[in-house]
Amino acid sequence: MSDSSMVVSDLRDAPHFFDAVADRVWRAWWEPHGFPLEHITGLLQASLADGAEPLCLVAHAGDRFVGTASVIASDLEERPDLTPWVAAVWVDPPFRGAGIGGDIVLKAAQAALDTGAEAVHLCALSGKRAFYERLGWQLDETDVGEDRLDVFSMRRVER
């Protein structure tokens, strides 16, 4: 897929992707833990309010869902003092490896930093460490919580 055919939109501007985003996020992280789909649709609904934080971004090629990333207040109960977070990063399998995940993650991080935050955070399994470091994320901690996650940050650059 060429970069020109893929765009990243705020879900508020492309609400017809709501069900696709909810489905992917639920299947990836919530369904395996027994949460109903309605749990995610409720959380995602909050990102549709005007001026809302959380924010949900959706990557799409025309009307085809490609991927998503969100900005939320907290993504790791072991680190309640850290906010905001880039979370729920997902790219559909046919589109992986084309730079779309990196693009959407960086757009989400920039959206968080544009709110005035000094830093934005992200957590991921250690197998994703090289991916996030290539994008410019700083590894702050390893082996956090029962999932032994890496915690990253990206700081605002003064211009």
Please explain how this structure is put together.
This is GNAT family N-acetyltransferase. The structure is a single chain. The chain contains 4 helices and 7 strands. It is α+β, with helices and mostly antiparallel strands and 159 residues long. The protein has a single domain, classed as 3-Layer(aba) Sandwich (Aminopeptidase). The strands form 2 sheets. A 4-stranded antiparallel beta sheet has the order 1-2-3-4, with helices on both faces. A hairpin with a 4-residue loop joins strand 6 and strand 7. Helix 1 crosses helix 2 (37-45).
What would you give as the CATH superfamily? Answer: Gcn5-related N-acetyltransferase (GNAT)
State the domain count: 1
Number of helices: 4
Q: What is the CATH fold-level name?
A: Aminopeptidase
Average pLDDT works out at 91
Question: What radius of gyration results from the CA coordinates?
Answer: 15 Å
- CATH top-level class: Alpha Beta
The biggest beta sheet is recorded as: 4 strands, antiparallel
Shape: globular
The CATH architecture is 3-Layer(aba) Sandwich
Q: Give the N-to-C terminal Cα separation.
A: 33 Å
Derived from helix and strand composition plus strand pairing, the structural class reads alpha+beta
Task: State the low-pLDDT regions, or none.
Answer: none
What portion of the residues fall into strands of 2 or more residues? 25-35%
Assign a percent range to the helix content.
25-40%
Q: What sequence of helices (H) and strands (E) makes up the elements?
A: EHHEEEHEHEE
The largest sheet has its strands arranged as: 1-2-3-4
* Strands, count: 7
InterPro entries: Acyl_CoA_acyltransferase, Bact_Acetyltransf, GNAT_dom
Domain N-acetyltransferase: 9-159
Protein name: GNAT family N-acetyltransferase
Keywords: Acyltransferase, Transferase
